[in-house]
Design a protein that fits this description.
The chain is an alpha/beta fold. It has two domains: 76 residues, no CATH class; 163 residues, 3-Layer(aba) Sandwich (Rossmann fold), CATH 3.40.50. The protein is built from eleven helices and five strands; from the N terminus they run H-H-H-H-E-H-E-H-H-E-H-E-H-H-E-H. A five-stranded parallel β-sheet has the order 2-3-4-1-5. Helix 3 packs antiparallel against helix 5 and helix 4 runs parallel beside helix 5. The longest helix is centred in the N-terminal third of the chain and has 24 residues. It is elongated and about 70 Å long. The C terminus is likely disordered. The site of zinc ion has 7 residues, from loops.
């Protein structure tokens, strides 16, 4: 774009008397605020109160694309959480070091992690935060209950045109495994999911009240195969009060 054209556009922008939107990320190159009137639903649906987009279009677009992935996937992930779980995003999880280490290992290496333990020990809290870290890096993360997962799988099976969950996520939290009635169809899609994560097609975090052997038993003949594909199973026994006190 030639110089006079750039100056003309900048003049028009200034004349508009633009308002800022503090809810949108600032310019990744210079930190200028975003303008009001955009929703950032796509990388190009934002404008900043600066000249970067004209002066360095390529670098600006590349950086805005990166910011968009982090912003967009954090938001999609947050919206996939039941409202009562959204508070977990602001609250750090406190508990045993070996549990935290397993989660950090999963965040780094991916694959399958299975968190189990009695209700009320904070498994879901921990799982919500573990995948949140990945969403904030711009990975496509989602949180689904076991029931929601089967529901989606059924829709996919009925409609070949429906978008495939496995094509749409990099990271999935499947919460509270073992509650839904396991039909042969459900057993098959659950096994398929764990298998896909085992092949590193996605990173899968499972939570359940049941130890892995017990959860797997519901799969019948596939129980052994499922267990061998669960990378790591860790029992969550709730916060360690002594460590918190000390
Ligand atoms: Zn800028």
């Amino acid at each position: 774009m030639d110089r006079s054209k750039v100056e003309e556009i900048l003049k028009t922008l200034k004349a508009r008397g633009v308002e800022h939107d503090p809810g949108l990320p600032p310019c990744p190159l210079c930190g200028a605020p975003a303008l009001r009137g955009y929703d950032f639903r796509a990388p190009h649906r934002v404008e900043h109160d600066c000249e970067c987009t004209y002066r360095e279009p390529e670098r600006y677009m590349a950086e805005v694309g990166r910011v968009w992935r982090r912003w967009h996937w954090s938001r999609v992930y947050r919206e996939s959480l039941p409202p009562t779980y959204r508070g977990y995003l602001e609250r750090p999880w406190e508990g045993r070091r070996e549990v935290l280490e397993a989660v950090v290992g999963w965040q780094r290496e991916g694959g399958v992690l299975y968190l189990f333990g009695p209700p009320g020990t904070g498994k879901t809290h921990l799982a919500v935060r573990a995948a949140w870290g990945k969403a904030q890096e711009g990975r496509r993360a989602l949180f689904l209950s076991e029931w929601e997962f089967y529901e989606r799988a059924r829709l996919e099976a009925q409609d070949p045109e429906a978008p495939r969950l496995l094509d749409q996520v990099d990271v999935l939290v499947l919460d509270d495994l073992g509650k839904a009635r396991l039909t042969p169809f459900a057993a098959e899609v659950l096994f398929g999911l764990v298998e896909a994560a085992h092949r590193k097609s996605l990173d899968l975090l499972l939570t359940s009240n049941y130890p892995p052997e017990e959860a797997a038993r519901r799969l019948g003949e596939n129980a052994e195969a499922l267990l061998s594909r669960v990378g790591r199973a860790v029992e969550v026994r709730g916060p360690d009060r002594r460590r918190r006190a000390g």
